[in-house]
Amino acid sequence: MDKFINMLEINNLHCKIEGKPILKGINLKINKGEIHAIMGPNGSGKSTLANVISGHEDYEITKGNIYFKGQEINELSPEDRAHEGVFLSFQYPVEIPGVTVTNFIKTAINESRKAKGIDEMPSSEMLKKIRAKASLLEIDSNFLSRSLNQGFSGGEKKRNEIFQMAMMEPELAVLDETDSGLDIDALKIVANGVIKCSHEDNSVIVITHYQRLLDYIVPDFVHIVMDGRVVKSGDKDLAKKIEEVGYDWLKKEKS
Amino acid sequence: MNFQEKLLDSFIAFEQDVDLLNPIHSDRKEALKRFEKQGFPSKKDESWKYTSLKSIIQKDYSLSSKPNKSVELRDVKEYFLNDLDSFKIVFIDGVYSPFLSKTTHDGMDICVLSAALSKAKYNSTIKNYFNRIVPKNESLASLNTSYTKEGAYIYIPDGVCPEDPIQIMHFSTGNQKSIWLQPRNLIIADKNAKVEIIERHQSLKEHSVVTNSLTEIYAEKNAFIDYYKIQNDLDSSTLIDNTFISQERDSNVSVHTFSFGGKLIRNNLNFYHKGKNIQSTLKGITILESNQHVDHNTLVNHAQPNCESHQDYKGIFSDRSVGVFNGKIMVDKIAQKTNAFQKNNNILIDNKAKVNSKPQLEIFADDVKCSHGCTIGQLDKEALFYLKTRGIPEKEAKALLTYAFANNILESVKIPNLKKRINSLIANKLGVSLGFDL
Prior knowledge:
The complex is a heterodimer.
Chain A (H helix, E strand, L loop, with lengths): L5 E12 L2 E12 L3 E5 L6 H9 L4 E10 L2 E2 L5 H7 L1 E4 L6 E5 H15 L7 H14 L4 H4 L2 E2 L5 H15 L3 E5 L7 H14 L5 E5 L13 E6 L2 E6 L1 H10 L2 H7 L1
Parallel strand pairs in A: 3-10, 3-11, 6-9, 9-10
Antiparallel strand pairs in A: 1-2, 1-4, 4-5, 7-8, 11-12
Helix pairs in contact in A: 3-6, 6-7
Chain B lengths: L2 H7 L1 H5 L8 H15 L15 H4 L15 H4 L11 E5 L2 E2 L12 E4 H6 L4 H7 L9 H8 L5 E5 L9 E7 L5 E4 L2 E6 L4 E10 L4 E12 L4 E9 L4 E11 L4 E10 L2 E10 L5 E10 L4 E10 L5 E10 L4 E10 L7 E10 L5 E10 L5 E9 L3 H9 L4 H17 L5 H14 L9
Parallel strand pairs in B: 1-5, 4-7, 5-8, 6-9, 7-9, 8-10, 9-11, 10-12, 11-13, 12-14, 13-15, 14-16, 15-17, 16-18, 17-19, 18-20
Antiparallel strand pairs in B: 1-2, 3-4
Helix pairs in contact in B: 3-8, 9-10
């Protein structure tokens, strides 16, 4: 299975939370090296999709499959998916007082290495990597010794998410509304970080409400999710059209 | 003969060992009378509603230890903060160990109570301080007073600030199958003095030990005292810790209690304010598992205007462990402009763990700021998911969140080495390496 082309394949995925159906037959195929954007109105199931891809245990898959690098991962735990190379950038990152950004990322990286049977990363290598990735996101060293997300501004939290992504070097990164609450300068820094980390062997899913992020992270494909299904797919022009005219026309088209 | 009767009967034998002419002997005798009347507390007492001593006092204990020379430094080294070249007062089965201790009479007194009781030059200090703030209605305090013989004696004179923390260590060896210990400590920080003290009770092997300890602490004007209690004993040990603190104006006393192990721990921690502009801090982290039981019973008596107290206790309970928090704040009528805050937050890791939290405020002044709050909950599931998406397995993720939950208590630990030690005790207790240098 080392010659996979499909990074992620989702077939007819249905899922519910607390008995309530949210996803009602999602189909999605993402190849290596591609950037996909997912847009849709509030409550359409975008964040649910992100959570389900990462293995959130509150969501119950009732039908369909998720394949990652050709392997079905429906039952895989979030930490195992992370070890396999899935990363989720959170819309609302969690605050962890007493654990610095540096110590947190060290723990994350070394736990992943441990799971793969690799020795811990030597401190010097870790430090070098932290410095390189921090400068990529214009993060200064004071920031790295602060408690994770505690007292961070919205922009700092999102930048920190992308910093973690850069450190963990996932094969599939799912960015859940990474642009919300960012001013234009912070948005550029974050987008630039994502671009610099993306290459032909990894893939990115960008979940967003707004076209403006897609000016910087230009997607290969855009999918519109409504009521738990992908109702339309297209190229980057589809996002532009949504920005101009909204979603109503899709509702009409559907009916 | 039950154990209570034994305690009463053995007093005659105890009297053979102490100086009956010392003025404090009348304190002993009066206290014994009170204990005889009061008996051990039972669940009928409001403040013992959730903690039962019944199974403990049904057993028999030896009241004195056999002389023992077998404890070497290497046996107990791990319990000291080794990298600290500090004063140590060490007791083995209740008996002072000069060999393991480092005491002084040079510019301050860091020694033992038996010495202070036997020498004339301490007479006036003993008279002024001994047994002055011990509540008469608490039977375990009475019991301790009646058997007063040995413990730590610390007197820091006006303006003196020892550089290093003082460690008070009580080891029990298990040379006797079961033993009842009653250390009696007297600690005085005179005007403008500043002192840090670490106290620990430790069994060296599994055996039945009950320690009914009593510590009187006096902070004179503008004195600073930081007191740290490390309670991480084996599951065969019981600790009843009675700590009574008297503060004069402008003084600042903090007590941190780290309760990580032991069969049963009861902390009676009382603060009495005797002047204006006092600061009192009571903080604690409790992390329990199996059938461990810890009961924090606190009292802050605001009896003077313009004083502050801060209480913050965090608890984490696994398996069938039980936590009790009973925190009382009393604000007397004259104690205007009091600021008194109390928090007790708990996390239950398992379904069978239990917490009884009971904040009590009695406020008789009308111009005060007081608040109290307690929470009992579980680890945040979203936070757990967040950590897992970073590749951190469930067990480590829970440990990290627990660590984060308790962390703000550690922020006020002022001794870096102690902070490190507590951090590693927490990591051990949570059964993980947190993956970074604490």
